Amino acid sequence: MQNGRKKITFALALKKGFSGKKAARKIYKVFITILNRITIVNTLSYKTKSAKKEEVERKWYVIDADGETVGRLSTRIATVLRGKHKPSYTPHVDCGDFVIVLNADKIRFTGNKMDQKEYITFSGYPGGQKRIVAKDLLVKKPFAILEAAVRGMLPKTKLGRAMFKKLFVYEGTEHPHQAQKPEPFTF
Q: For residue range 9-64, what is the model confidence (pLDDT) as tens digits?
């Protein structure tokens, strides 16, 4: 680049009627200082801004699970809980929103998963492993199916546990969070 600049400045010096290397050097120095002033870029405007815990604005969303497929719904919920739907998403900060899921008892599975999918729990004691089929779990604890699916899609860290606490799953259409003025979440 330096050789190119020297050629340009020398050509300018010849056009203006200067002769000799001293005149060309002076013009070259002036030209370089002008170019350096022009090419200075404000690098602060190009830095990525990370969200801070105190700056995150959280909203409340309501999702109706009536007739929704478990896996497809839970991926959308996990995305909102993590905050990946926001342009200010930062992986190491909990910047997600609160999610209220209604009609958890009316979710559905595709294929034969309702009869074949098993949920396994373990108490920690010998012989304490229990298995329950999705159809029976839907009758016994309908909220547990969605909670298990979403929990599996969140990070397995302190941050993931904090994100999971922002999920509220209810069986019917009523919920006690009217004071937060939740908005319906459109996918």
A: 556 655 666 666 767 777 777 777 777 776 555 666 667 888 899 999 999 999 99
Are the CB atoms for 61 and 184 separated by under 8 Å?
yes
Separation of first and last alpha carbons in the chain = 52
pTM for this model (two decimals):
0.74
Q: Alpha carbon of 104 to those of 59, 139, 153: distances in Å?
A: 21, 11, 18
Per-residue pLDDT reduced to its tens digit, 110-142: 999 999 999 999 999 999 999 999 999 999 999
70 within 8 A of 156, measured Cβ to Cβ: no
d(CA 28, CA 182) in angstroms, rounded, equals: 66
Distance CA 55, CA 169 (A): 27
